[in-house]
Design a protein that fits this description.
Blueprint lengths: L8 E2 L5 E2 L12 H4 L14 H5 L3 H22 L4 H4 L2 H10 L6 E4 L6 H6 L37 H15 L5 E6 L6 H13 L3 E7 L10 H10 L3 H15 L5 H18 L4 H4 L3 E7 L3 H12 L4 E7 L7 H4 L28 H15 L3 E5 L3 H4 L1 H7 L4 E3 L4 H13 L3 E7 H4 L3 H9 L6 E5 L16 H4 L7 E3 L4 H13 L5 E4 L13 E3 L2 E5 L6 E5 L4 H12 L5 E5 L2 E3 L3 H8 L3 E9 L4 H11 L5 E7 L9 H7 L4 H16 L15 E2 L5 E4 L6
Parallel strand pairs: 3-4, 4-5, 5-7, 6-7, 8-9, 8-10, 10-11, 11-13, 12-13, 16-17, 16-19, 19-20
Antiparallel strand pairs: 1-2, 12-18, 14-15, 15-17, 20-22, 21-22
Helix pairs in contact: 5-13, 7-8, 10-11, 15-17, 15-22, 18-20, 23-27
Length: about 700
Amino acid sequence: MSRAGRSAHRRRDGRSAPDEGARGSWERKLSQAEAGADGRLLATVRTPQDVKRLSAEELTLLAAEIRDFLVAKVSRTGGHLGPNLGVVELTIAMHRVFDSPRDRFLFDTGHQAYVHKILTGRQAAFDQLRQRGGLSGYPSQAESEHDLIENSHASTALSYADGLAKAYALRGEARSVVAVVGDGALTGGMCWEALNNIAGARNPLVVVVNDNGRSYAPTIGGLADHLAALRLNPGYEKVLDLVKESLGATPLVGRPMYEVLHAVKRGIKDAVAPQTMFEDLGIKYVGPIDGHDLAAVESALHRAKTFGAPVIVHVVTRKGYGYRPAEDDEADCLHGPSSAFDVATGKLLAAPAVKWTHVFADELVAIADERPDVVGITAAMAEPTGIASLARKYPQRVYDVGIAEQHATTSAAGLAMGGLHPVVAVYATFLNRAFDQVLLDVAMHKLPVTFVLDRAGVTGPDGPSHYGIWDMSVFGVVPGLRIAAPRDAATLREELREAVAVDDGPTVVRFPTGSVAADLPAVRRVGAVDVLTESDRADVLLVAVGAFGKLGVDVAARVAEQGYGVTVVDPRWVRPVAAELVDLAAGHRLVVTVEDGVRTGGVGDAIAKALRDADVPVPLRDLGVPADWHPHGSRAQILADLRLTAQDVARDITGWISGLDDPADAPTADAGLGGDSVTGDGRNGRRAGTGRN
C-alpha cells in the first residue's frame, strides 16, 4: 500500500495537509508504483458498482493506489496531474452515492475526470493517455457511456446541468445531475447566470464546488476571498452542527421555536463568515467539507442527493494532494506537465527549450520598461501565457480577472479609454468566447488593445476544444482589427512591438505552442511582407503564414527539383491583406496559401477576395485545416493527417503548376472559378479573379 492516501493531519488554517508518511514513496521503481498490477485492489475495480462494495479500509487503500497509478501513468505521457490528485476521494464518493451513467456527472473543463475514467473501466487505456488513437485527456462520449460533456472550456457545466435537470423533470425521470465545478470556474460569468436559473427552477441538482483555491494559479477576486473565509474557519461547521443538534433535540418544535433557531443559525453564519451568497440565491449550501475525508464527502453527497432541490456541496481539496513534487510546486501544483517527467522530482525529462511563450514574456517586459502605459491582463492563466513575468516586475500593472474572457476584453477596453495600452494574453481557443466584446466593445470604439493568442493553431494532445484554429477566421471579420502571425522569435518580438505601437484600433498577435524554431531571416522586405526565398522563375507565390515559414522554404526547395520556381513570402500581418502581397501575386502564375487555421474564412479566403477586388485573375489554392473536430495527437501527427507537411504541400504544388502547363491535367473550367473545387488529390482550390467564393 502506498502512503499517499493515508489520513492527513489538520493544519491551523483548517485545511487538510498530508504528513510526511502521506506523501508516498516515490523513490520506488516505477514497476512497483504502477497501480493495476496483479493482486492490487485497483485491478478489481472495473465499474462503479465495484467501488460500492468496498469497506472503509479498502477505500483508503484504493485512494492510495489511484494516486500511485496517476503519477506512474501521467509521468510517461504528460497530462493534468495536480487536479486529479486532488479529487480522488471526491470522485470515489460520487460513484458510491450516485449511479452513473443513469445519474449524470458533469466535470467542468473535464481535466479533473481522470479518476472518473479509472473507476469506469478505462485503466488499461492510460498507457496511451493523450496519445494518438488513445485515451482523451477530457471526457469523451466515444470512450464511455459514463462521459457526457466533451467541451473542455471552463464555467459551462452548470448551464449544461440546468438544462439536463429541466429535461429530466419535464420527462418525469428520477435521475440525479451532479456538476463538479472548480472554485476557479466560479470566477466565470456563465456560472452565475446558470446559478440564477438553477435557483429559480428548483429542480434536484447537486453542484460540487471543488475548492482548492486555484484554477491554474491561485484563484483571485471577491469570490476567492469569500470561499477562503469559509475554508479557513474551522469553527464554522461545528457551530452549524450545534445549531442543527439543538433544533433536533427540541421537543414539539413549533413555528415560533423554528423561527427563533433559524434566526440564530443565520446570525451565527453571518458572524462567523461573510454572507453566504449561495443561500442568498435560494440554493441550499452544505460545507465546507474536507475533500480528503471520504466518509465526510460521501455523507454530504447522500444528504444532497435526497434533498429534492438544488444543493451546493462545498468540498475543500488540495491540488496535487499526496505527491510531494506537486504539492511543492507553487506555480500550479503540477497542473498539467506537458510531457514525461521524473517521478521522484516532478521535473520534465526533456531538455528545456525556448518556448514561444518565453519569447513573448521577455519582450513584453522589455516593452513595459520603456512604456509605462502598457499593462497586462490574463484570465486565470498568468504563468501559462507568460503574463506572470510582467507581474513579477510590475505587479501593479497586471490584472488577472479569473476565468472571464468576456470581462477581460471589455475591462481592457476601459483601460484603453483611460489612456493605457492593455495587452490581453489568453490561449487562442479561449478568445472565441469574447467575440462580441472584441467586435463591439473594443473594435467599434477603435481602442488600442493588443490580444496575444498563445497556442494558436493545432496544439495536439489536448484535443479539439483546445485547438486554436478558429481565430483568424472568427476575428478576420472584425473591422479595423489587425492580425499578426510571427514565424520565429525575432518576428514575434518585432510584431509585438508593432502591435503595441498601434493607437487607433485593436491588434492580435498569434503564435503556436511549443519550442521556437531557429530564426528564419528574410532575403528582402516588400512593404510589410517578408520574402523568404525566390527564384528566377515566377511560377508560384507561396504564402506561408506564421510558423509555416520554414515549411514554405522546404517546399520551395522540393518544387525547384521539379523545374519550377517558387517565391515564398511571410505576410507577417495577415489581416488586412497587404497591397504589396496582391502586387506580388499578380507577377506569378499560381498563388498557394498555407495556414495553421481553418480554411473557411481564413487567410486564403482573405487573399482570394483581395485578388478578386483588384481584378487579378491568378488562380489560388488554399491549404489549411478543415473546419471539423480533429482528434487529439501530437501536433506533428495531426499536421501529417491533414497533409500539411513539406512533402505533401510540395507534391500538391507540383501537380497544380504542371496542370497549368498541360491543359489535360488541369482542373475543369468550372472547377477553377472560385468555388470549392476538387483537384485530383482531393484538395480544394479557387480562382481568385471571380466573384464566387
